[in-house]
Protein backbone atom coordinates (compact mmCIF):
# COMPACT_ATOMS: atom_id res chain seq x y z
CA UNK A 1 0.00 0.00 0.00
CA UNK A 2 1.18 3.51 -0.84
CA UNK A 3 0.39 6.72 1.04
CA UNK A 4 -0.08 10.40 0.35
CA UNK A 5 1.51 13.00 2.62
CA UNK A 6 -0.99 15.71 3.61
CA UNK A 7 -1.70 18.27 6.31
CA UNK A 8 -4.61 17.79 8.70
CA UNK A 9 -5.41 20.57 11.19
CA UNK A 10 -1.91 21.84 10.50
CA UNK A 11 -0.23 18.49 11.28
CA UNK A 12 1.54 16.17 8.80
CA UNK A 13 -0.39 12.96 8.24
CA UNK A 14 -0.56 10.17 5.69
CA UNK A 15 -3.60 8.99 3.75
CA UNK A 16 -3.80 5.43 2.35
CA UNK A 17 -3.98 5.31 -1.44
CA UNK A 18 -7.48 3.81 -1.32
CA UNK A 19 -8.70 7.02 0.33
CA UNK A 20 -6.48 9.58 -1.43
CA UNK A 21 -8.12 12.07 -3.77
CA UNK A 22 -5.09 12.01 -6.05
CA UNK A 23 -2.60 9.24 -6.76
CA UNK A 24 0.16 11.69 -7.63
CA UNK A 25 3.27 11.61 -5.43
CA UNK A 26 2.27 8.43 -3.62
CA UNK A 27 5.03 6.97 -1.41
CA UNK A 28 5.69 3.83 0.62
CA UNK A 29 5.22 4.53 4.33
CA UNK A 30 8.97 4.16 4.93
CA UNK A 31 9.54 7.36 2.91
CA UNK A 32 6.73 9.39 4.51
CA UNK A 33 6.91 11.98 7.27
CA UNK A 34 3.86 12.06 9.54
CA UNK A 35 2.58 12.21 13.10
CA UNK A 36 2.08 8.73 14.55
CA UNK A 37 -0.80 9.98 16.69
CA UNK A 38 -3.17 12.95 16.52
CA UNK A 39 -5.01 14.79 19.30
CA UNK A 40 -7.88 12.76 20.69
CA UNK A 41 -11.43 13.82 19.83
CA UNK A 42 -13.24 12.84 23.04
CA UNK A 43 -16.61 13.16 21.29
CA UNK A 44 -15.74 10.71 18.53
CA UNK A 45 -18.04 7.63 18.52
CA UNK A 46 -15.33 5.00 18.22
CA UNK A 47 -16.20 1.49 17.01
CA UNK A 48 -16.18 -0.86 19.98
CA UNK A 49 -15.49 -4.08 18.01
CA UNK A 50 -12.38 -2.39 16.57
CA UNK A 51 -11.35 -1.32 20.05
CA UNK A 52 -11.84 -4.84 21.41
CA UNK A 53 -9.89 -6.40 18.54
CA UNK A 54 -6.98 -3.97 18.49
CA UNK A 55 -6.63 -2.90 22.12
CA UNK A 56 -3.21 -3.81 23.53
CA UNK A 57 -1.97 -5.15 20.18
CA UNK A 58 0.34 -3.80 17.48
CA UNK A 59 -0.40 -5.49 14.16
CA UNK A 60 0.29 -5.01 10.46
CA UNK A 61 -2.63 -3.26 8.81
CA UNK A 62 -3.34 -6.25 6.55
CA UNK A 63 -4.21 -8.37 9.61
CA UNK A 64 -6.96 -6.02 10.80
CA UNK A 65 -10.43 -7.15 9.60
CA UNK A 66 -11.96 -3.66 9.32
CA UNK A 67 -12.46 -1.29 6.40
CA UNK A 68 -9.55 1.05 5.73
CA UNK A 69 -11.94 4.02 5.98
CA UNK A 70 -12.94 3.00 9.52
CA UNK A 71 -9.30 2.56 10.55
CA UNK A 72 -8.27 5.90 9.07
CA UNK A 73 -11.17 7.77 10.69
CA UNK A 74 -10.00 6.47 14.06
CA UNK A 75 -6.45 7.67 13.28
CA UNK A 76 -7.69 11.15 12.39
CA UNK A 77 -9.62 11.30 15.66
CA UNK A 78 -6.69 10.19 17.82
CA UNK A 79 -7.82 6.63 18.60
CA UNK A 80 -5.33 4.71 16.44
CA UNK A 81 -1.57 5.01 16.11
CA UNK A 82 0.17 4.64 12.74
CA UNK A 83 3.79 3.41 12.83
CA UNK A 84 6.28 2.41 10.18
CA UNK A 85 7.07 -1.30 10.09
CA UNK A 86 10.71 -0.51 9.35
CA UNK A 87 12.53 2.69 10.21
CA UNK A 88 15.79 3.85 8.66
CA UNK A 89 18.52 5.75 10.53
CA UNK A 90 21.94 6.54 9.07
CA UNK A 91 21.19 4.25 6.14
CA UNK A 92 20.46 1.30 8.47
CA UNK A 93 17.11 -0.39 8.96
CA UNK A 94 15.41 -1.38 12.20
CA UNK A 95 12.23 -3.43 12.54
CA UNK A 96 9.70 -1.72 14.80
CA UNK A 97 7.96 -5.00 15.61
CA UNK A 98 10.89 -7.16 16.71
CA UNK A 99 13.65 -4.60 17.25
CA UNK A 100 16.01 -6.27 14.76
CA UNK A 101 18.80 -3.98 13.55
CA UNK A 102 21.16 -6.64 12.22
CA UNK A 103 21.48 -5.59 8.57
CA UNK A 104 22.24 -9.17 7.51
CA UNK A 105 18.70 -10.08 8.56
CA UNK A 106 17.05 -7.70 6.11
CA UNK A 107 16.41 -8.57 2.46
CA UNK A 108 14.68 -7.15 -0.61
CA UNK A 109 11.82 -8.62 -2.60
CA UNK A 110 9.46 -7.47 -5.37
CA UNK A 111 6.45 -6.07 -3.52
CA UNK A 112 2.91 -6.08 -4.94
CA UNK A 113 1.85 -3.40 -2.47
CA UNK A 114 4.37 -0.65 -3.21
CA UNK A 115 5.31 -1.89 -6.71
CA UNK A 116 9.02 -1.66 -5.82
CA UNK A 117 11.90 -3.77 -4.59
CA UNK A 118 10.90 -3.65 -0.94
CA UNK A 119 13.07 -4.28 2.13
CA UNK A 120 11.68 -6.68 4.72
CA UNK A 121 12.73 -8.12 8.10
CA UNK A 122 13.70 -11.79 8.09
CA UNK A 123 14.08 -11.95 11.87
CA UNK A 124 10.36 -12.05 12.73
CA UNK A 125 9.17 -13.63 9.48
CA UNK A 126 7.58 -16.48 11.42
CA UNK A 127 5.01 -13.96 12.72
CA UNK A 128 4.22 -12.65 9.21
CA UNK A 129 6.19 -10.38 6.92
CA UNK A 130 6.98 -6.78 7.91
CA UNK A 131 8.08 -4.78 4.86
CA UNK A 132 9.34 -1.25 4.52
CA UNK A 133 5.84 -0.46 3.20
CA UNK A 134 4.08 -2.16 6.14
CA UNK A 135 2.10 0.00 8.51
CA UNK A 136 1.81 -1.17 12.13
CA UNK A 137 -1.47 -0.27 13.81
CA UNK A 138 -2.11 0.04 17.55
CA UNK A 139 -4.96 1.38 19.66
CA UNK A 140 -4.34 4.59 21.61
CA UNK A 141 -7.93 5.57 22.42
CA UNK A 142 -10.20 4.71 25.32
CA UNK A 143 -9.28 1.40 26.94
CA UNK A 144 -11.58 -1.24 28.29
CA UNK A 145 -10.68 -1.55 31.95
CA UNK A 146 -11.03 -4.66 34.03
CA UNK A 147 -13.46 -4.20 36.89
CA UNK A 148 -11.99 -4.54 40.36
CA UNK A 149 -13.56 -7.73 41.62
CA UNK A 150 -13.42 -10.28 44.37
CA UNK A 151 -11.64 -13.09 42.57
CA UNK A 152 -10.45 -15.86 44.83
CA UNK A 153 -7.77 -18.47 44.27
CA UNK A 154 -9.23 -21.96 44.68
CA UNK A 155 -5.88 -23.67 45.23
CA UNK A 156 -5.98 -25.74 48.41
CA UNK A 157 -2.19 -26.13 48.57
CA UNK A 158 -0.54 -25.07 51.82
CA UNK A 159 2.66 -23.23 51.05
CA UNK A 160 5.94 -24.14 52.71
CA UNK A 161 7.78 -21.49 54.73
CA UNK A 162 10.09 -20.78 51.79
CA UNK A 163 7.18 -20.57 49.37
CA UNK A 164 5.22 -18.24 51.64
CA UNK A 165 8.14 -15.86 52.01
CA UNK A 166 8.53 -15.70 48.23
CA UNK A 167 4.77 -15.35 47.76
CA UNK A 168 4.75 -12.27 50.00
CA UNK A 169 7.57 -10.75 47.95
CA UNK A 170 5.63 -11.35 44.72
CA UNK A 171 2.62 -9.48 46.10
CA UNK A 172 4.91 -6.65 47.26
CA UNK A 173 6.55 -6.40 43.81
CA UNK A 174 3.13 -6.09 42.15
CA UNK A 175 1.95 -3.51 44.66
CA UNK A 176 5.08 -1.38 44.26
CA UNK A 177 5.59 -2.05 40.52
CA UNK A 178 9.08 -3.42 41.07
CA UNK A 179 11.31 -6.01 39.47
CA UNK A 180 11.78 -9.28 41.35
CA UNK A 181 13.72 -12.48 40.74
CA UNK A 182 12.30 -15.60 42.38
CA UNK A 183 15.30 -17.94 42.42
CA UNK A 184 13.59 -21.22 43.19
CA UNK A 185 15.24 -24.64 43.13
CA UNK A 186 13.82 -27.24 40.76
CA UNK A 187 10.71 -28.82 42.24
CA UNK A 188 10.13 -26.09 44.84
CA UNK A 189 6.61 -25.29 43.61
CA UNK A 190 7.29 -21.88 42.08
CA UNK A 191 3.97 -21.74 40.18
CA UNK A 192 1.99 -21.84 43.43
CA UNK A 193 4.13 -18.96 44.73
CA UNK A 194 2.50 -16.76 42.10
CA UNK A 195 -1.11 -17.39 43.09
CA UNK A 196 -1.45 -14.75 45.82
CA UNK A 197 0.13 -12.13 43.59
CA UNK A 198 -2.14 -13.04 40.68
CA UNK A 199 -5.18 -12.90 42.99
CA UNK A 200 -4.16 -9.43 44.21
CA UNK A 201 -3.57 -8.16 40.65
CA UNK A 202 -6.89 -9.53 39.40
CA UNK A 203 -8.77 -7.82 42.20
CA UNK A 204 -7.03 -4.55 41.37
CA UNK A 205 -8.18 -4.81 37.75
CA UNK A 206 -4.61 -5.25 36.44
CA UNK A 207 -3.75 -7.08 33.21
CA UNK A 208 -1.40 -10.03 33.83
CA UNK A 209 0.79 -12.06 31.51
CA UNK A 210 2.77 -15.16 32.37
CA UNK A 211 5.32 -15.54 29.56
CA UNK A 212 7.54 -18.52 28.88
CA UNK A 213 9.90 -19.48 26.05
CA UNK A 214 8.30 -22.93 25.60
CA UNK A 215 4.87 -23.94 24.27
CA UNK A 216 4.95 -27.03 26.52
CA UNK A 217 4.87 -24.80 29.59
CA UNK A 218 1.88 -22.83 28.26
CA UNK A 219 -0.05 -26.06 27.70
CA UNK A 220 0.88 -27.33 31.16
CA UNK A 221 0.14 -24.14 33.12
CA UNK A 222 -3.09 -23.07 31.41
CA UNK A 223 -5.31 -25.78 32.99
CA UNK A 224 -3.67 -25.21 36.39
CA UNK A 225 -4.45 -21.50 36.22
CA UNK A 226 -8.03 -22.16 35.09
CA UNK A 227 -8.50 -24.51 38.01
CA UNK A 228 -6.96 -22.06 40.49
CA UNK A 229 -8.96 -19.08 39.17
CA UNK A 230 -12.28 -20.48 37.89
CA UNK A 231 -13.98 -17.05 37.76
CA UNK A 232 -11.35 -15.63 35.37
CA UNK A 233 -11.05 -16.17 31.63
CA UNK A 234 -7.53 -17.47 31.01
CA UNK A 235 -6.22 -16.79 27.49
CA UNK A 236 -3.50 -19.12 26.14
CA UNK A 237 -1.23 -17.87 23.36
CA UNK A 238 1.14 -20.05 21.33
CA UNK A 239 1.77 -20.92 17.68
CA UNK A 240 -1.48 -22.72 16.84
CA UNK A 241 -3.61 -21.30 19.63
CA UNK A 242 -7.29 -20.61 19.00
CA UNK A 243 -7.10 -17.72 21.51
CA UNK A 244 -4.92 -15.44 19.35
CA UNK A 245 -7.66 -12.92 18.65
CA UNK A 246 -8.89 -12.84 22.24
CA UNK A 247 -7.93 -10.50 25.05
CA UNK A 248 -8.18 -11.33 28.71
CA UNK A 249 -7.13 -10.15 32.13
CA UNK A 250 -4.98 -13.22 32.73
CA UNK A 251 -2.92 -14.44 29.78
CA UNK A 252 -0.25 -17.10 29.44
CA UNK A 253 1.89 -16.77 26.36
CA UNK A 254 5.04 -17.93 24.62
CA UNK A 255 7.56 -15.11 24.37
CA UNK A 256 7.20 -15.18 20.56
CA UNK A 257 3.52 -14.21 20.77
CA UNK A 258 4.44 -11.08 22.72
CA UNK A 259 5.51 -9.58 19.38
CA UNK A 260 1.80 -8.95 18.79
CA UNK A 261 1.36 -6.79 21.89
CA UNK A 262 2.30 -3.23 22.72
CA UNK A 263 2.27 -1.50 26.13
CA UNK A 264 -0.32 -3.96 27.42
CA UNK A 265 0.61 -5.74 30.62
CA UNK A 266 0.74 -4.20 34.08
CA UNK A 267 2.10 -7.41 35.60
CA UNK A 268 4.62 -9.40 33.57
CA UNK A 269 5.81 -12.74 34.93
CA UNK A 270 8.61 -14.42 32.95
CA UNK A 271 8.98 -18.11 33.73
CA UNK A 272 12.26 -19.86 32.89
CA UNK A 273 14.03 -16.61 32.02
CA UNK A 274 17.22 -18.53 31.28
CA UNK A 275 15.62 -21.05 28.92
CA UNK A 276 16.29 -21.33 25.20
CA UNK A 277 15.52 -19.44 23.01
CA UNK A 278 14.74 -16.41 25.23
CA UNK A 279 18.18 -16.21 26.85
CA UNK A 280 19.98 -15.97 23.47
CA UNK A 281 17.38 -14.08 21.43
CA UNK A 282 17.33 -10.25 21.67
CA UNK A 283 14.12 -10.21 19.61
CA UNK A 284 12.21 -11.99 22.38
CA UNK A 285 13.68 -9.73 25.06
CA UNK A 286 12.60 -6.71 22.97
CA UNK A 287 9.11 -8.21 22.56
CA UNK A 288 8.72 -8.67 26.30
CA UNK A 289 9.76 -5.09 27.07
CA UNK A 290 7.53 -3.66 24.33
CA UNK A 291 4.51 -5.62 25.58
CA UNK A 292 4.79 -4.25 29.13
CA UNK A 293 3.33 -0.97 30.23
CA UNK A 294 6.07 1.45 31.17
CA UNK A 295 4.76 1.58 34.73
CA UNK A 296 4.52 -2.15 35.46
CA UNK A 297 5.97 -4.91 37.61
CA UNK A 298 8.30 -7.57 36.21
CA UNK A 299 8.81 -10.89 37.98
CA UNK A 300 11.38 -13.46 36.84
CA UNK A 301 11.23 -17.13 37.78
CA UNK A 302 14.07 -19.62 37.39
CA UNK A 303 16.18 -22.20 39.16
CA UNK A 304 19.30 -21.16 37.25
CA UNK A 305 19.71 -17.39 36.78
CA UNK A 306 22.75 -16.19 34.87
CA UNK A 307 25.27 -13.61 36.10
CA UNK A 308 23.83 -10.85 33.93
CA UNK A 309 20.41 -11.18 35.54
CA UNK A 310 21.83 -11.45 39.05
CA UNK A 311 23.78 -8.22 38.52
CA UNK A 312 20.78 -6.27 37.18
CA UNK A 313 20.10 -2.90 38.76
CA UNK A 314 16.87 -2.34 40.70
CA UNK A 315 16.24 -6.09 40.95
CA UNK A 316 15.09 -7.61 44.23
CA UNK A 317 16.01 -11.28 44.71
CA UNK A 318 14.27 -13.89 46.84
CA UNK A 319 15.43 -17.50 46.96
CA UNK A 320 13.48 -20.66 47.63
CA UNK A 321 16.41 -22.97 48.42
CA UNK A 322 14.34 -26.03 49.33
CA UNK A 323 11.55 -28.17 47.99
CA UNK A 324 8.25 -28.14 49.78
CA UNK A 325 8.71 -31.75 50.99
CA UNK A 326 11.69 -30.59 53.13
CA UNK A 327 14.24 -33.04 51.73
CA UNK A 328 17.66 -31.86 50.45
CA UNK A 329 18.33 -31.63 46.74
CA UNK A 330 20.14 -34.71 45.39
CA UNK A 331 23.80 -33.82 44.84
CA UNK A 332 25.40 -35.19 41.63
CA UNK A 333 28.10 -37.85 41.76
CA UNK A 334 30.99 -37.64 39.29
CA UNK A 335 32.14 -40.93 37.70
CA UNK A 336 34.99 -41.19 35.20
CA UNK A 337 34.03 -43.51 32.35
CA UNK A 338 37.00 -43.21 30.04
CA UNK A 339 36.73 -42.31 26.35
CA UNK A 340 33.08 -43.16 25.94
CA UNK A 341 32.99 -41.91 22.34
CA UNK A 342 35.63 -44.43 21.27
CA UNK A 343 33.72 -47.12 23.14
CA UNK A 344 30.57 -46.26 21.16
CA UNK A 345 32.54 -46.46 17.90
CA UNK A 346 33.33 -50.06 18.90
CA UNK A 347 29.62 -50.60 19.68
CA UNK A 348 30.33 -50.78 23.41
CA UNK A 349 29.10 -48.87 26.44
CA UNK A 350 31.60 -47.86 29.16
CA UNK A 351 31.87 -50.62 31.76
CA UNK A 352 31.25 -48.31 34.75
CA UNK A 353 28.07 -47.03 33.09
CA UNK A 354 26.85 -50.55 32.28
CA UNK A 355 27.39 -51.54 35.92
CA UNK A 356 25.38 -48.49 37.11
CA UNK A 357 22.57 -49.12 34.65
CA UNK A 358 22.38 -52.87 35.34
CA UNK A 359 21.88 -52.15 39.02
CA UNK A 360 18.79 -50.05 38.17
CA UNK A 361 17.48 -52.64 35.72
CA UNK A 362 17.73 -55.31 38.44
CA UNK A 363 15.79 -53.10 40.85
CA UNK A 364 13.21 -52.19 38.18
CA UNK A 365 14.08 -48.50 38.69
CA UNK A 366 13.29 -46.02 35.94
CA UNK A 367 16.23 -44.13 34.44
CA UNK A 368 16.38 -40.82 32.58
CA UNK A 369 19.65 -40.68 30.65
CA UNK A 370 20.98 -37.51 29.03
CA UNK A 371 23.45 -37.56 26.14
CA UNK A 372 24.93 -34.60 24.22
CA UNK A 373 23.89 -35.35 20.63
CA UNK A 374 21.20 -37.09 18.57
CA UNK A 375 23.77 -39.37 16.92
CA UNK A 376 24.99 -40.45 20.36
CA UNK A 377 21.39 -41.01 21.44
CA UNK A 378 20.73 -43.36 18.53
CA UNK A 379 23.87 -45.40 19.27
CA UNK A 380 23.17 -45.60 23.01
CA UNK A 381 19.55 -46.71 22.57
CA UNK A 382 20.65 -49.62 20.37
CA UNK A 383 23.31 -50.73 22.85
CA UNK A 384 21.05 -50.41 25.92
CA UNK A 385 18.33 -52.42 24.19
CA UNK A 386 20.68 -55.42 24.46
CA UNK A 387 20.44 -55.04 28.25
CA UNK A 388 16.77 -54.07 28.52
CA UNK A 389 14.30 -53.79 25.66
CA UNK A 390 12.19 -51.24 27.59
CA UNK A 391 14.22 -48.33 26.25
CA UNK A 392 13.62 -45.54 23.76
CA UNK A 393 15.05 -42.15 22.88
CA UNK A 394 13.60 -38.66 22.36
CA UNK A 395 15.00 -35.45 20.94
CA UNK A 396 13.73 -32.13 19.61
CA UNK A 397 13.12 -33.44 16.08
CA UNK A 398 11.21 -36.52 17.27
CA UNK A 399 7.58 -36.27 16.14
CA UNK A 400 6.54 -38.85 18.74
CA UNK A 401 8.28 -37.06 21.61
CA UNK A 402 5.12 -36.31 23.62
CA UNK A 403 3.81 -39.86 23.30
CA UNK A 404 7.15 -41.36 24.38
CA UNK A 405 7.41 -39.05 27.40
CA UNK A 406 3.86 -39.94 28.41
CA UNK A 407 4.68 -43.66 28.16
CA UNK A 408 7.72 -43.05 30.37
CA UNK A 409 5.53 -41.26 32.91
CA UNK A 410 3.16 -44.24 32.88
CA UNK A 411 6.10 -46.65 33.45
CA UNK A 412 5.51 -48.32 30.08
CA UNK A 413 9.13 -47.39 29.28
CA UNK A 414 11.78 -47.92 31.94
CA UNK A 415 14.78 -46.20 30.33
CA UNK A 416 14.42 -42.95 28.41
CA UNK A 417 17.47 -41.57 26.61
CA UNK A 418 17.25 -37.90 25.72
CA UNK A 419 19.13 -34.79 24.69
CA UNK A 420 18.86 -31.58 26.72
CA UNK A 421 15.33 -31.10 25.32
CA UNK A 422 14.06 -32.72 28.55
CA UNK A 423 16.31 -30.85 30.98
CA UNK A 424 13.17 -28.90 31.98
CA UNK A 425 9.49 -29.59 32.24
CA UNK A 426 9.45 -33.33 32.93
CA UNK A 427 8.45 -34.71 36.32
CA UNK A 428 8.46 -38.46 36.97
CA UNK A 429 8.08 -39.53 40.61
CA UNK A 430 10.68 -42.25 41.14
CA UNK A 431 13.70 -42.05 38.84
CA UNK A 432 17.47 -41.92 38.83
CA UNK A 433 19.23 -39.65 36.36
CA UNK A 434 22.54 -39.98 34.55
CA UNK A 435 24.49 -37.90 32.06
CA UNK A 436 26.80 -39.74 29.67
CA UNK A 437 29.47 -37.35 28.37
CA UNK A 438 28.88 -34.68 31.00
CA UNK A 439 32.08 -32.93 29.90
CA UNK A 440 30.49 -31.92 26.57
CA UNK A 441 30.11 -28.16 26.02
CA UNK A 442 26.35 -28.46 25.73
CA UNK A 443 26.14 -29.37 29.41
CA UNK A 444 26.47 -25.94 31.01
CA UNK A 445 26.09 -25.24 34.71
CA UNK A 446 22.46 -24.28 34.10
CA UNK A 447 21.70 -27.42 32.08
CA UNK A 448 23.31 -29.71 34.66
CA UNK A 449 21.45 -28.10 37.57
CA UNK A 450 18.18 -28.52 35.68
CA UNK A 451 19.01 -32.14 34.85
CA UNK A 452 19.81 -32.91 38.49
CA UNK A 453 16.51 -31.27 39.39
CA UNK A 454 14.57 -34.09 37.70
CA UNK A 455 15.32 -36.35 40.70
CA UNK A 456 13.52 -36.49 44.05
CA UNK A 457 10.69 -34.09 43.22
CA UNK A 458 7.85 -36.21 44.63
CA UNK A 459 7.00 -36.27 48.37
CA UNK A 460 6.56 -40.05 48.04
CA UNK A 461 10.02 -40.43 46.46
CA UNK A 462 12.02 -37.41 47.68
CA UNK A 463 15.45 -38.95 47.10
CA UNK A 464 17.32 -40.44 44.17
CA UNK A 465 20.67 -40.68 42.44
CA UNK A 466 22.20 -38.24 39.96
CA UNK A 467 25.42 -39.35 38.26
CA UNK A 468 27.55 -37.46 35.76
CA UNK A 469 29.63 -39.91 33.70
CA UNK A 470 32.56 -38.06 32.16
CA UNK A 471 35.90 -38.20 30.38
CA UNK A 472 37.28 -35.28 32.39
CA UNK A 473 35.63 -33.00 34.98
CA UNK A 474 34.71 -29.55 33.66
CA UNK A 475 34.23 -26.23 35.44
CA UNK A 476 30.54 -26.37 34.51
CA UNK A 477 30.14 -29.69 36.33
CA UNK A 478 31.86 -28.31 39.42
CA UNK A 479 29.81 -25.10 39.38
CA UNK A 480 26.58 -27.06 39.03
CA UNK A 481 27.38 -29.25 42.03
CA UNK A 482 28.46 -26.23 44.09
CA UNK A 483 25.20 -24.42 43.30
CA UNK A 484 23.15 -27.40 44.49
CA UNK A 485 25.27 -27.77 47.64
CA UNK A 486 24.95 -24.01 48.29
CA UNK A 487 21.15 -24.20 48.08
CA UNK A 488 21.09 -27.17 50.47
CA UNK A 489 23.32 -25.26 52.89
CA UNK A 490 21.08 -22.16 52.73
CA UNK A 491 17.97 -24.32 53.19
CA UNK A 492 19.51 -25.98 56.23
CA UNK A 493 20.51 -22.63 57.78
CA UNK A 494 16.95 -21.36 57.31
CA UNK A 495 15.42 -24.52 58.75
CA UNK A 496 13.67 -25.39 55.47
CA UNK A 497 14.90 -29.01 55.22
CA UNK A 498 14.99 -31.92 57.62
CA UNK A 499 18.47 -33.41 57.93
CA UNK A 500 18.63 -36.95 59.31
Automatic annotation (TrEMBL):
It comes from the Bacteria. Residues 171-323 form the Helicase ATP-binding domain. It holds the Pfam family ResIII. The keyword Ligase does not apply. GO terms for biological process: DNA recombination; DNA replication initiation; double-strand break repair. Keywords: ATP-binding, DNA-binding, Helicase, Hydrolase, Nucleotide-binding. This is DNA/RNA helicase. It comes from Bacillus solimangrovi. The keyword ATP-binding applies. Residues 348-500 form the Helicase C-terminal domain. GO terms for molecular function: 3'-5' DNA helicase activity; ATP binding; DNA binding; hydrolase activity. SMART domains: DEXDc (SM00487), HELICc (SM00490).
Amino acid sequence: MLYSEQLYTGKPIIVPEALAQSLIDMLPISECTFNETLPKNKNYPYVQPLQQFLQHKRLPINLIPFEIQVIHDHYLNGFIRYQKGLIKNNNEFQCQRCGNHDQHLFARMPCVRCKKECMYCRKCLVMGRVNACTMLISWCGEETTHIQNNHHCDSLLTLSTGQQTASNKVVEAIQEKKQLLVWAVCGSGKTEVLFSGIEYALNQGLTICIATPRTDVVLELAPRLKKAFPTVEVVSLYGNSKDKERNGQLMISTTHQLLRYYRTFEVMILDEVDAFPYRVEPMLQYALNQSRKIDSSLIYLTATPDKQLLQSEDLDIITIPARYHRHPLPVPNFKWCGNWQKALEKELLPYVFVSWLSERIDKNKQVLLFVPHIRTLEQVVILISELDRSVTGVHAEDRNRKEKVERFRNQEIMILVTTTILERGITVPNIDVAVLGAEDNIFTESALVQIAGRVGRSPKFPTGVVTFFHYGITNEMVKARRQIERMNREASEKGLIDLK
